[in-house]
Amino acid sequence: MKKSILMTFLFVCSLFAQQPSLPPGLEAYVTRVMKTFEVPGIALAIVKDGKVMLAKGFGVRTIGTSTPVDAQTRFGIASNTKAFTATALALLIEEGKLEWDAPVVRYLPWFALSNPYVTHELTIRDLLVHRSGLGLGAGDLLWWPASTYNRKEIVRRLRYIPLATSFRSAYAYDNVLYTVAGEVIEAVTGKTWEEFVAARILAKIGMTHSNVSHADAAGIGNIATPHAPIGGTVRPVKPDTSANVNPAGGINSCAEDIAKWMIVQLDSGRVAGSSLLFSPGFTRQMWQIVTPIGSRPAPVQLAPLQSNFNGYGLGFFIRDYRGRKLVTHTGGLSGYVSRIAMIPELRLGVAVFTNQESDEAYEAITYWVLDHFLSAPAFDWLGGFCWYKVRHDSIAAAPEIASANSRDTTSHPSLPLEKYAGTYTDSWYGDVIIMYNSGTLGIRFVPTAALVGRLEHWQYDTFIARWDDPEMRADAFVSFSLNPDGTIDRIKMKAVSSATDFSFNFQDLLLKPSTSPGGK
Prior knowledge:
The chain contains 12 helices and 20 strands. By secondary structure, it is an alpha+beta fold. The chain has 2 domains: 39-395, 3-Layer(aba) Sandwich (Beta-lactamase); 417-513, Lipocalin (Beta Barrel), CATH 2.40.128. The longest helix is centred in the C-terminal third of the chain and has 26 residues, at 381-406. The termini are far apart.
């Protein structure tokens, strides 16, 4: 009898010992990371085996205030939205309204890219996997910063953007084809992307504190204020409010809701209450590499990040981490960056949302938490990402330093300044005006109110656009090419700093005079 009692006691103890637990010292570690990288607030969600282990806020919504981030505080999750758009398409495919490998033009006959072959061969699947031939961030200036173009006009203008590579030959991250995916959803359902995702995904899962538009970040309520380092000081910045790219990055969510989303993903579409959001077969497709990316050697300071495979599936990056398959995505908007990471084999999910543009903060927390559940050897993730930030900042500054050192400060413009003035047009973007006034030049992107500033002479016929709004952080070289008769032939642009967000795709513009330069 005593032996039986002892065995039962030992069995119960072993069960408790096997129960997953949160990492010891979690709150202290998160607080330390936030302090190190100057992050005012973080939302953290951890799920395991179909249960929420943690959904919690840390820090404050706005720097210098005491209002805390809690489990229901919304953050812009940016490109983590892409998996929701992929899921929306999957729901329509399961209903027989779409096919993964059907051409987009079957549903949007007016859609076109610059190459007719690609136009007719591009499929619904291709919209999600960054292999169309468009370059990195192609077309993003049509919506970033907010422009006067509506969603359909943005999609129509894609036909004027030259492809950077051949079709399906290379990976290049884009946002605009997710906007096309949103148009497909509207075409076959009669509902906007926002209406469909809110009703068919958020409401079904019970994500009651989340919504589907960038514009919410400028509203009131339990919302984290976006922050960024401006002039070396972290401060609040204006949120992105353009609805045009909601299908690529418009969802605002919180720790409590995103935990529900990860549980559904990890349970093959099963929602609490045993109903299915989507079939298990979609999970297998979503988490299968379609576009290979390749793996780079990890530096010794971040050695565990070395991977053997890496690629993009349907709305998620797929790679390995410490011998396990990792399904993940990041998100970045003005003042918000985040990561969602899941290890399907362990039914483990981690989401970290921040209200400051510090990739290093969410990375240091994500991998530290994953390592706990993997029983991995201790690793100094905070130290590793501190090293990474210093290295990254140094690399980003190097081209600017080299450019400044090679600058010919004795050079002068070839023409009187007023001769550079006029309206210039790019075939896919539209009009840019160069203005002359009292001995100085200015620049204004007509569809984009935020892109207005002054031109400072750099050297020869190259100037630098200094935007009036310091939150742009996107100074750009503006180089004029002349015809033999001294008139302006074209303008090319390029970001001054390699740290400029890739969505400022100035380098893709080819501006030609649309009126005779010289006007005011």
